[in-house]
Amino acid sequence: MINSIRFAWIISVVATLGSLYFSEVLGWVPCILCWYQRILMYPMSIILGVSVYKNDTKVIPYILPLPIIGLCISTFHYLKQHLPSFAEIGSCEFGGVSCTTDYIDWFGFITIPFLAGTAFLLILITFIYELKKNKKKSE
């Protein structure tokens, strides 16, 4: 189980460092939805890191809501960038940056919310896999 937590921790650290690189090195100002995604990702880097360090395998149920909510926000953010009907839902501007701003657009579909959503999804799949594996062990 600790290998799964280590995998989820590595994903969260890469996502955290990636977001910091975009904002602090490249100078891209995050929109409000990006901030919400950061609020959910950054604590996982710390909590999962401590869990790996202490070999604590009971952390998943307590932080499971973070990747679920993060995935929902990332999905909404991605749809807001790519579908005009979603772009019209609510005002989404923070620090002069709109949530529809595409700083990157690799291969026509990979954007920052896509990257964040992928990280949240991988972490969520890892957590679900571990929870199911532990449930089978206890039966």
What does the largest sheet look like? 2 strands, antiparallel
Q: Report the mean per-residue pLDDT as an integer.
A: 86
Order of secondary-structure elements:
HHHHHEEH
- Strand segment tally: 2
Structural account:
The chain has 139 residues and is mainly alpha-helical. Helices cover 72% and strands 3% of the residues. It is built from six helices and two strands. The chain has helices spanning 2-25, 32-54, 60-63, 65-82, 84-87, 112-138, and strands at 93-94, 97-98. Strands 1-2 form a two-stranded antiparallel sheet. Strand 1 and strand 2 (97-98) form a beta hairpin. Helix 1 (2-25) packs antiparallel against helix 2, helix 1 runs antiparallel to helix 6 (112-138) and helix 4 runs antiparallel to helix 6 (112-138). The radius of gyration is 16 Å and the shape is elongated.
